[in-house]
């Protein structure tokens, strides 16, 4: 969601920043600005690429952005992916178009969106096998290409099997170990804590999930703090309880309410992306660069946008140490453990 918001923000800046230039008759000639947004995932069943356009508008840019005909190129452009293995071309994939119908309302038109896609499986890196993909799009007046290395390999895995939020470690930085991903340049981590909630003694139990985002980590920072050839994710147990308090809110001390904790109540999602997307996210956060709409913000020659790659891993985790007893001791929260043996400290 963070990345999507940054991309929409950056695209908005391209519209508005361009319309504020001086010493140019903006309406003398209609000038299109191609926009490409594609983030490949070699483990996905389907990969989507957004190919659209912006231009110097006469009138309200926000109203124009709500018009599909203003953003879409008519018909289907010739767009294709060329696969390279260790630098040698291996195959070519022609992209087709599809219309999705569930885009949330926002700056740009919704709920329908035209996307380019392929259901051909992309290849993930392996021992002595390094894959990259070139995107080629034939626009009406130009042909644009962009290149990205595939992020990830089978070795991108968690080394730790539990999360320890014991209160005895308040103020202590706990460590979660994982193996890095090939070509991963920016890492994001998301904890989900799910429990079953029964509002009344005779009511049904329904799952509730608390979400907790950790800060982003650059690859070079993680590489400087390795343990046993693994990267180290640092987290603080105190932050877990602060997030839980905000999530539960006024639902504490409700008579008859019980919350059940199972064996693996925590899921950690680890996501990493390539150099191009890392640069795009960083540049989108710099107001001066993004608002200017100048060509030096473009990561693809001849257009705006980004073409990169990412990979995610979902890791089910048990609660280690005294985490479960600590939660059970918070009687106002009504937690009960219905799993097996509580795992030892890690």
Present the secondary structure layout:
Elements: H1 2-18, E1 32-40, E2 47-55, H2 61-65, H3 68-71, E3 78-85, E4 88-94, E5 96-100, E6 113-118, E7 131-139, E8 142-149, E9 162-163, E10 174-178, E11 186-198, E12 205-213, E13 217-218, H4 219-223, E14 231-235, H5 237-248, E15 258-261, E16 266-273, H6 275-284, H7 287-292, E17 304-319, H8 323-329, E18 335-337
Parallel strand pairs: 1-17, 9-17, 15-18
Antiparallel strand pairs: 1-2, 2-6, 3-4, 3-7, 5-6, 7-8, 10-14, 11-12, 11-13, 11-15, 11-16, 16-17
Pick out its properties.
346 residues, alpha+beta, 2 domains, twelve-stranded mixed sheet, four-stranded antiparallel sheet, 8 helices, 19% helix, globular, disordered N terminus
String of helices and strands? HEEHHEEEEEEEEEEEHEHEEHHEHE
**Span between termini:** 31 Å
Instruction: Give me the secondary-structure category.
Output: alpha+beta
Unreliably modeled segments: 1-29, 286-296
What number of domains?
Answer: 2
Residue fraction in strands: 35-45%
The backbone outline, from C-alpha atoms, is globular
E-strand count: 18
Q: Oligomerization state of this entry?
A: single chain
Spatial extent as radius of gyration: 24 Å
Mean residue pLDDT: 84
Specify the number of helices: 8
| Largest sheet descriptor | 12 strands, mixed
Percent helix range? 10-25%
